[in-house]
Amino acid sequence: MCPPRFFEVSYVINPWMDPTKPVDTALAMTQWEELRDTYRRLGHTVHEITPEPGLPDMVFAANSGTVIDGRVLGSKFRAPERAAEAEHFRRWFVEQGYRDLRMPTKINEAEGDFAWTGRVLLAGTGFRTDPEAHAEAQESLGVPVVSLRLTDPRYYHLDTALFVLAEETDSTPAQVCYYPEAFSPGTRRVLRRMFPDAVLADEGDASCLGVNGVSDGRNVVLPVEATELGDRLAARGYEPVYVDIAELRKAGGGPKCCTMELRK
Questions:
Q1: What is the C-alpha radius of gyration for the chain, rounded to an integer number of angstroms?
Q2: Which range marks the domain in which residue 145 is found?
Q3: Can you tell me which residues form the catalytic site (predicted)?
């Protein structure tokens, strides 16, 4: 995770951003700290990277790396405003001792568009990550990749429209939650075939970035507004954990956007 010390909305690279609306950086920091501390209370280890001035979106750490079995594929941003973030995260991985590290040649916004199910890497495209980056991810990470096409610009990254509730094990299939209307018709058919028992989100869930959740297989961290989705998840046996991250949502980010998962 990366503290939002320099967070602001000074440019527009997604439909959520409006530089004319005021942003409270101190409040963003307080909300981010609550998210970080929530992970710690749930028993998770949180590593922090130092934020850099002039990179207000660096708080959205999910976009800067994909880690599976200790292998790391870095990022390459589409928006020039975020391009410099990739090198800061690359250096962080090196400093932390990651040796199997590759940087992409294609536009690749990491866990913003990649979701690991325990067996397959779901890979989004349509607005940010290039389709060619999916093949590059398969070669770099050594896992099968399934491409999914996003069609609604409000849900510009896969992690705004889908998240993994529980990874696949030898005895149980992966479980996911997704918002069908964010995807192309063909992709919806793929998702129905792969995940017939998925939790389906509606417009109300998606419009507060409720589908930008983080699950450890039991606890599901959601924006505080996503109570209806939380109720449906609770009915499936999950434990909703709500956080207020409304200030960071002004830049199009929720809990998952702020969270890169390190799978060692």
A1: 17
A2: 25-249
A3: 157 (proton donor), 257 (nucleophile)
- Sign of the C-alpha dihedral computed for residues 70, 71, 76 and 77 taken in this order: negative
Q: How far is CA 53 from the centre of its chain?
A: 22
Tokens 């700290």 label which residue?
33
Give 262's contacts (C-beta < 8 A, 6+ positions apart): 47, 67
Kindly state the DSSP code that residue 224 receives in the 8-state scheme: T
pLDDT in tens, the chain (264 residues): 999 999 999 999 999 999 999 999 999 999 999 999 999 999 999 999 999 999 999 999 999 999 999 999 999 999 999 999 999 999 999 999 999 999 999 999 999 999 999 999 999 999 999 999 999 999 999 999 999 999 999 999 999 999 999 999 999 999 999 999 999 999 999 999 999 999 999 999 999 999 999 999 999 999 999 999 999 999 999 999 999 999 999 999 999 999 999 998
Strands 114-116 and 145-149, bridge-based pairing:
unpaired
Domain presence at residue 38:
yes
Biggest CA-to-CA distance, the chain: 51
Assigned domain for 6 exists: no
Q: Which two tokens stand for residue 142?
A: 């050594």
Q: Is residue 12 part of a domain?
A: no
E strand or H helix at 38, and its extent? Answer: helix 25-41
**Count of the separate structural domains present in the chain:** 1
10 Å CB burial of residue 200 (0-12, 13-18, 19+) is middle
CA pair distance 247, 123, nearest whole angstrom: 27
Active site residues: 157, 257
pTM: 0.97
Among residues 82, 97, 83, the alpha carbon closest in space to that of 47 is found at 97
